[in-house]
Amino acid sequence: MAGGLALDAGGAFASALAYGYTTGELVGRAFLACAVVAGCYGAYVLVGSFLVRRTADKVERHKLRSVLRLCAVLVGTVAVLGVVTDRWVPALVSLGVAGFAVTFALQQPLLSLFGWVYVMVKEPYEVGDRIAIDGATGDVIDVDVLVTTLWEVDGGLVASNQPSGRHITVPNSVVLATGVTNFSRESFPYVWNEVSVQVAYETDLDFATEQMRAVAGELLGDEMARGVADYREQLAETPVELEVNERPSVNVEPEGTFVTLRLRYLVPPKRGQRTKNELYRRILERFNEHPERVAFPVGRNR
Q1: How many whole angstroms separate alpha carbon 229 and alpha carbon 244?
Q2: How far apart are CA 199 and CA 294, in angstroms?
Q3: I need a surface site. Which of 4, 31, 33, 47 has the fewest CB within 10 A?
Q4: How far apart are alpha carbons 55 and 121 in whole angstroms?
Q5: Cβ contacts of residue 168 below 8 Å, gap of 6+?
Q6: What are phi and psi of 204, to 5 degrees?
Q7: Which residues touch 252 (CB under 8 Å, ≥6 apart)?
Q8: Contact (Cβ atoms closer than 8 angstroms) between residue 261 and residue 169
Q9: CB neighbourhood size of 159 (10 A)
Q10: Rounded to an integer, what distance in angstroms lies between the CA atom of residue 42 and that of residue 113?
């Protein structure tokens, strides 16, 4: 039976005749198989539409579609075997035996399928998250049964955390063998970022750092405070002990002929570059209003 299933269409026809089916019965079963396939597809569309309408979250809708698609394929396969042959149970067993013979050839697809199950259950990332995996960084736009598709960020074509326009497909098996960096997980969709400004040693450092904190507080203060409060709650559930500032802070680092002031703040990763640009603009404007208190390194001193 397994040999007959593995043959081409002509071999399958001959095998079916060998089981005693007449030509009329074969045609009838073929039409019935087509009807079963159409019915499974229709059920998939109807159930999918019903569940999608009841689910507002687009990430959950994507998961439901992926799971329903796999279930429809499995149910359709068993149903077609059931109507094509009266011996569908032995046929399934034979397919299972044959499956062992091709396992080595399908190792990567099978691992990717297991990886998809892992992503669905453990949720190391979801559609819409910005992640780094297997040397690639980007926003997840699709998680299929076999591959995850990213909208690339940076990637050598551009910088400053901007999309490059390229799509990257990563086998789901990678998630089982390498680490995943998630920059925008729903439970804490923030990252710490820094803006560095170089000033001369003649600068009033207390004044400069205070101005940088004030500018960042005006732009990010309340949102950052809420984000840090969430972070502290999650941190309290772990054995890790850290001191986390709920407001922007500035670190001072002397570097040879100038001093670097590093403003540290919390921001959603997809707004990182836009926020950095705005902070630079406001900080430089504020510093230029007080040239007697803030000096910049010039010439070869920088």
Answers
A1: 9
A2: 7
A3: 31
A4: 18
A5: 136, 138, 149, 150, 152, 155
A6: -75, 95
A7: 205, 209, 259, 260, 261, 262
A8: no
A9: 11
A10: 25
Torsion on CA atoms 213, 214, 220, 222, rounded to nearest 10: 110
Distance CA 68, CA 42 (A): 12
CB 138 within 8 A of CB 150: yes
Tokens describing residue 256: 């040879």
Beta bridge partners of 265: 193
Which DSSP string do the residues of 128-164 spell out, in sequence order?
A: T-EEEETTEEEEEEEE-SSEEEEEEE-BTTB-SS-EE
Q: What CA–CA distance (Å, rounded) separates 261 from 199? A: 8
Spatial distance between the Cα atoms of 238 and 241, rounded to a whole number of angstroms? 8
Structure tokens that stand for 286 in this block: 């504020």
18 phi/psi in degrees, rounded to 5: -65, -25
Tens digits of per-residue pLDDT, 270-302?
Answer: 888 899 999 999 999 999 999 999 999 876 444
C-alpha span between 135 and 198 (Å, rounded): 32
Tens-place pLDDT, residues 161-202:
788 889 999 999 999 988 899 988 877 889 999 999 999 999
- Tell me phi and psi for residue 17, to 5 degrees: -60, -35
Give the pTM: 0.63
**∠ CA(168), CA(134), CA(273), 5° rounding?**
70
Residue 165 backbone class (left: φ over 0; alpha: ψ -120 to 50; beta: rest): left
